[in-house]
Each structure stands twice: as structure tokens, then as C-alpha cells.
Amino acid sequence: MSRATRPEHERLPDETDDPGEIAATHDEEKPARRLSRRPELLVYLVALAVALLVLRQVFFPLTKGNQFYLVIFLGCTLPLVFLSYRPGGRRGAGERDDPAWYDWVLSALTLLVSFYPVLPLSGGFDAFLDRQGGLSTLDVVAGSLLLLLVLEATRRTTGWILPVICAAFVAFAYYGGFLPQNWGIAHAGVDFGQIINALYNDASGFYGTPLDVAASYIVLFTLYGAVLSASGAGQFFVDFSFAAFKRSRTAPGRTAVLSGFLLGTVSGSGTATAVSLGSITWPILRRAGYPQENAGGLLAASGIGAILSPPTLGAAAFIIAEYLQTSYLTVLIWACVPTLLYYLGIVFSVEADARRFGAEAVDIERGSAWKLLLRGGYHFLSLAIIVVFLALNIPPFAAVVYATGVAALFALVSNLVRATDGPGRAVLDWARGMVDALSIGVRGALPVVAVCAAAGIITSTITKTGLGQELADALVQAANAISQDPTVILVLTVVFSALAVGVLGLAVPVTASFIIAWVVIGPALGELGVADAERAMFIFYYAVLSEVTPPTALAAVAAAAITGGRVIPTMMQAWKYTLPAFLVPIAFVLTDNGAALLLQTDAVTVLWVLAASVVAVGALSVVTGGWLFGPVPVPVRLLFAPGALCLLYLEPPVVAVGLGFCALGLVAQLAFRRKARFTESQFKEELDAD
């Protein structure tokens, strides 16, 4: 029975019918408070001020430099975490959800120590920087307090795991000198003042690349998503997806996939997309006959695809561009073919599932897709503007601001066209909606800000101690201990790396998972000759896929809350739908031809590699879905499985072997189906004779 239709007395205590509450509860970020009027107004106004600061920085940067801006940005946003997020637990029915006195104290203390580097108390920003490497006692105290407050803010927004990892790295920096010096990870030890100096005064640590990316890119894209959502784009994308597919038994599943892709441009969160998608499409999937677990797995897989899909991608994509010193457009281009293969795998599985469990066609009145496109197609224009401006070498932070302006302008025109109370009221409603969107966008980025500040602790410590290189060497040595063959070493290192990133992603958010894996696993792959782009995208994809990896799979848990399905089976269905995405990234790094999947080689190589990968994804779908012109028996699946794996090792001889396995599987399946039909026909004849 669906949770939505379950009698009230049978519901679990923490169940809710509010999709936003479900998304918040099961997302990698913890649910925010529901504030009463006065604290809500304060947070609203500060968030709005931050949005205006971020927009101003795009066109009129602060004259004292980027680190000065990051100090101001962190000082404005981090205190909001203590007002917006609870220290633990959930709000009970009827309970106040406002900050307690200690939350106000922590917020005020955070404000003080965050702004300390630019206050007269420290002598001013220039004097503070001049003390680099020789901080005063007051500097160290302020930096130590900020360290603790960053860890607490991260705990409130993401849970215990990431703060514990950060604390372990700080402890390693301080106590590493006491380790036996014959251990590879041992170092000379770092004085506590030096640790605080690296975190608080250097252009690293709290103010390193992760926070820079959050303040310069990620917040702008969350503002864009909020404005796009306020303009009605989300509902249009869903309506268009429903109208795009004609009445058939596979149309509901296809609609969920397309809607997930389009909605992801608005939400930017895999779990939030899965929940938003589920609240709209689950009733349709249920009417079509989808089991609860299959529907939940489909919703989770479609939602997570949003983080992998151009033109927005996830927060880690901006960090890739920054780390590799390349344009964001280049990262978008790298993501095109893998995104195509990801959704192609889901569509193949949808087609198989709809036939396997006998889905039914559902009539949905959404009008003509062409009419919808004519009426609301302008929502696609702002997305196109981002890509066009990036192609014109306009920086991404400026491109997204222009796209946000276009989305806001179209929303105004739409309000005026639909106005029934006069243009003045329409303009007022539009202005209120846009201002709300700016505040909502900043508040939605608060968990990412906390995570990025915390990630700076890890990257700074690894840089100071050289730990990253030592762990990378250990990974390669583990593969060397098993085999001396270079190809086997590479394969084993890739498999170990995939497992390591996947396990890491179970515990920490995608952005932190990528940052940690990049500084630890990235060098290991680099030692084996894997190019920067391939290893960056490999790590990125596995960091994202941890969202659908059992036993946590937060997106699947949230989808199960919508469908009322069992959690573990829903996770396994999500894993089934996304299995090709788990294997395709390996193809990036195993051979030189893997670069073709990132569109980095000549057109001929791209075409044959793409064709081989499409066949591989189809073969994997046969293995996991168990359907090809009918049910596929296990022996036939055992032919397709090695075929798919060989096809993903993108060397022509191995690809030829893979095609041979798939051809044998196809012949065997056709023979099996012919025999099954003959047996069925013979059975019917005997019944008729009787």
C-alpha cells in the first residue's frame, strides 16, 4: 500500500506528505528549521544581502582582492547556518523551531571570528596578512574558534562523518611527527600555530579553492535555479515531458526520465529532483502498474542524473574546472557523451521493465507538446544562453548572471500576459517572487558553503603533510603486489579507486567526496599515465553515483518515502537502473581511446567508441533487466555480461570479442524465444484438441 493512501493510524511517526520535507529529510544536507516571523525575516534579509554581494562581485569585484571577498562571504553565510539548522534531531509536532539562546551565541561568535581578519581588532586585513607565518596569540585563538565552528556548521548540515574526517586530518597534521619514521605517511609534524596559519591566513584552508568555487560559481547557479523555479519552469518541464510521449505502456517511464533531466536544471540536487519528480509522476507510474520499488528506483536514478547533466551539472564540476584550470564549457563538453549513455541505460531498462511486468498505457491530458512548447518554450532559452555565452568565452559566473536575468525577464512578461488584476499587481508579484528567489538561492547554498569550508581543512592538511602522495603511492603498490603487468596494475588501481570513491561517497556529500578523492586518488591514477580530464571525470562520476549506492543511497531512500516501497529493494532497483553509469566511467581511464567518450579525440574515433559504448549499455540492460524480445534466461545473460565488459575496454580487438559475445547472446535469445513460442503454440493446440 502506498504511504499516501495508508490510513492515518498506520503511518509511521516520521512520515510526511510534504515533498519538500521528504527531500530535506533524506537529502545529504540535513533539514533546515522552520523559523517564526522575526528570525525568518533576519535570515531572509541577510541571505538577500549576500545574494546582492555575490552579484555585485561578478561585475564590480572588491578592490582588496579575492581572499578579502571570501572572508566577507564566509562571515555573512556561516552564521546563518546556526540560525537555520538545528543542532540535532527533528522538530516535533507543535514544537517551536526557532534558534535557542546558544544558537544565537554561536552565530554571533561565528560572525566575530569570521570577520576578525578585516576588523580593527586584528589591525585590519593588510596587517593580518602581513603576519602570515607568525600569527599573534589572538589570531590563533580566533582561527581555532573558527575551525571548531566550521566543523559544527558542517555537522549540522551534513552529519558527523565529514567533521570527524576533518578532525582526523588536523590530528594527523599535529601528531604525525610522533609516528614511526619508517612509515610512509610519517612526517616531521606541524605546530598548531602553523596549522591555524594555513587554515586562516593563507589563500588556502578555509579560503581555498573549494570555498572560492562556492562563492564565485555555485551560489550563482543556485540563484539561477531559484529564479528559474520561481518563473514556473519546473511545472512546464514536467507538463512538456508528459505531452512529449504518446500514449503507450512505456510513456510513463520515459516521462519520468525526461522530467528528471529537465527538472535537474532547476533544483541542482539529485535527491530533491527525485522527490519533486516523484510527487508528480508516481501517481501516473502507479496507474501504469509500476511496482513501488521499481518506480522508486526509476525516480532515484532519474533524479541523480541531474547532477551529471549539462548545462548545470553538480557543484563538483565547477571544482574540476578550477583544479584543472580549464573552462567550465570544456567540462560541459566532457560530460555530454557520458550523460547520453547514462540516460540511454535508464531508457533501455524502462523499455524492458514496462514489458516484463506488463505496464499499461495511461491517458494524461497535457495538450499538444508543440502548443506547450510555443507557450512556455522560453524556459529553455536561459539554459541555451549559458551554453552560448560560455562558447563566446564569457566567464561562467557572468554567463549564469545573464541567464538569470533572462529567466527573470521572461517571468515578468509571462506575469503581465496572464495578469487579471492589472499590470501593477503583476509587476509587484513578479518583483516579490524574484526577491524571494534570491534569498532562497543563498539559503539553499548554505550546506555547500559549510562543506567547502570544511573541505579546505582536508586539502590544506594534505598539502602541508604530503599525505596525498603517500596514499596514492600505497594504492599503486597494492596493485603492484598482485601483478607486475602494467595493464593489470592499471585495471586493479582503477577498480580499487572506484571502490574507494564509492565508499567515501557513502559517508560525505558529493562535493567533499570529489575533493578528498581528487587529492588522494587523483595522483595515483596520474602516476599510471591517466590524463587529467579522464581521472577528474572518473572521480566525479563515482562521487555522484554514491547517491544511489547501497546501503545509504539517499536518493533511493527519499524516493521510497514517496512511493511507499521497501527501502532496500528500492535501492537495488536504483542500482540496476544506473549500473551502466557505474561501468562507463571505467572506460574513461583504461585505454587511450577512453578520451573519445569525453569528446577529446578525432570524429572517427568518437563515432566508433560511441557505437561500442551504446551496444555495451544495451547489453548491460539485457543483463540487469532480463528482457530482449521476451524474458532472457540466465545462460543467455551470461553471454551478454562478458560482451558488455569487453566492449567497455575500448581497444578494437577486445571490442570485436565483445561484439562476438553479444552476437552469440542475440542468436541464443532468438533460438530460445522461437522454442518458447513453439512450445506455447503446441500447448495451445493440445488444449484445443482436448
- Residue fraction in strands: under 5%
Can you summarize the main beta sheet? none
| Helix segment tally | 28
What number is the mean pLDDT? 82
Poorly predicted regions are 1-16
The tally of beta strands, per DSSP, is: 0
**Terminus-to-terminus distance:** 42 Å
Query: Rough shape?
Result: globular
What does it look like?
Helix 15 (328-356) crosses helix 25 (567-590). This protein starts with 18 loop residues before the first helix and ends with a helix. The chain is mainly alpha-helical. Residues 1-16 have low confidence and may be disordered. It contains 28 helices and no strands.
Features:
690 residues; 0% strand; mainly alpha
Can I get a quick summary?
By secondary structure, this protein is mainly alpha-helical. The protein contains 28 helices and no strands.
List the helices and strands and how they pair.
Elements: H1 19-26, H2 37-59, H3 66-84, H4 101-115, H5 125-130, H6 137-158, H7 161-175, H8 192-200, H9 209-230, H10 233-244, H11 251-267, H12 270-288, H13 292-308, H14 315-323, H15 328-356, H16 369-376, H17 379-391, H18 396-418, H19 423-465, H20 467-482, H21 486-507, H22 510-527, H23 532-545, H24 554-563, H25 567-590, H26 603-625, H27 634-647, H28 652-689
Helix pairs in contact: 1-12, 1-24, 2-3, 2-9, 2-19, 3-4, 3-19, 4-6, 6-7, 6-8, 6-19, 7-19, 9-14, 9-18, 9-19, 10-11, 10-16, 11-12, 11-13, 12-13, 12-24, 13-15, 13-24, 13-25, 14-15, 15-25, 15-26, 17-18, 18-19, 19-22, 20-21, 20-22, 21-22, 21-23, 22-23, 23-25, 24-25, 25-26, 26-27, 26-28, ...
